[in-house]
């Protein structure tokens, strides 16, 4: 009997490549999400420091022009925080989409592998049946020849 050959080997290779690509895309998305989260947190810390500084200046009684300039700076920082938080939410959505795509690619590969494993088991069973049939045929042929007589001493070929 011939050695096992999986007829969908090319499809399995494509599915493996698709899964690998999806995994790499997911990893990049994870990195982008972390970076967006860190940028949002950094902007929030910056805003907090500036608001604290603004409150300190108010307590000291600084000129209105300086207070207004610092307040405007804090408003701009708040807009930056909002932008960074929006970017982070978008990165989370992209991350979720890429995670789902990776899981789908993995599932598709596993389906083809499961089919390959099933065919391999069937091939193995067929091979065992053929071997057993050959052994049975050999045993039947021996039985048909009759019992073998032991050779007599000195009567050798």
Summarize this entry quickly:
This protein has 157 residues and is mainly alpha-helical.
Question: Briefly, what CATH class?
Answer: Mainly Alpha
Instruction: Output the CATH topology.
Output: Helix Hairpins
Count of helix runs: 2
Computed structural class: mainly alpha
Number of structural units classed as domains = 1
Looking at the overall shape, the CATH architecture is: Orthogonal Bundle
Strand content: under 5%
Looking at how many chains there are and whether they match, the oligomeric state comes to single chain
What attributes characterize this protein structure?
single chain; 157 residues; Helix Hairpins
What is the strand and helix layout of this fold?
Blueprint (H helix, E strand, L loop, with lengths): L8 H52 L3 H82 L12
Structural features, described:
- With 157 residues, this protein is mostly helical.
- The chain has a single domain (9-143), classed as Orthogonal Bundle (Helix Hairpins), CATH 1.10.287.1700.
- It is 85% helix and 0% strand.
- The chain has helices at residues 9-60, 64-145.
- Helix 1 (9-60) runs antiparallel to helix 2 (64-145).
- 10% of the residues are buried.
